Amino acid sequence: MRGSVLFIAIxxxxxxxxxxxxxLKENDFNQLFHGGxxxxxxxxxxxxxGVDYALKNKKKNFFTFDDTGMCYxxxxxxxxxxxxxxxxxxxxxxxxxMKIHFKKNNEIWDxxxxxxxxxxxxxxxxxxxxxxxxxxxxxxxxx
Length: 143
What we know:
This protein is of the alpha+beta class. It is built from three helices and nine strands, in the order ααββαβββββββ. The longest helix has 18 residues, at about 1-20. The protein has one domain: Lipocalin (Beta Barrel). Strands 1-3-4-5-6-7-8-9 form an eight-stranded antiparallel barrel.
C-alpha cells in the first residue's frame, strides 16, 4: 500500500514538473513558401487535362507568397506585360494541403501538397478546387 502511494506521488510529481509552464511553439508550415518575409516561385509546370501548358506557352507564371498570408499570381508575356491576381493562402492539415482564395472572382484553388522541398513544390488540385490542375513551383533564382 505504501509502495503504491509512493509510486503515484512520484509519477504525479514528474507529470506536473514536465508540463508546468512549457509552451509549445507553433509549427509554421508557411515558412517554406514565404521564407520569413516573401519569396518568388516560378511555375515550371501547369498540367491541365494531361497537357503541360507551361512548356507550350511563351508566358511565364509566378507566385509570390508573403508572411502575411497573401500571395500574388503573376502572368508575364509580351502582350499582357504583367497581369497580377492577389489572393489569400493557407497551409492546412499539418502542411499536407494548400488553399488559395482569389477574392476578386471568389475562386478557390485547393491543392494537396504532393511533395515539398527548398528546390521544388508539387501541388495537385483536389475535388474541392474550382480548377483541376497540377502545379510545380521552383524558387526563382536570386541574383
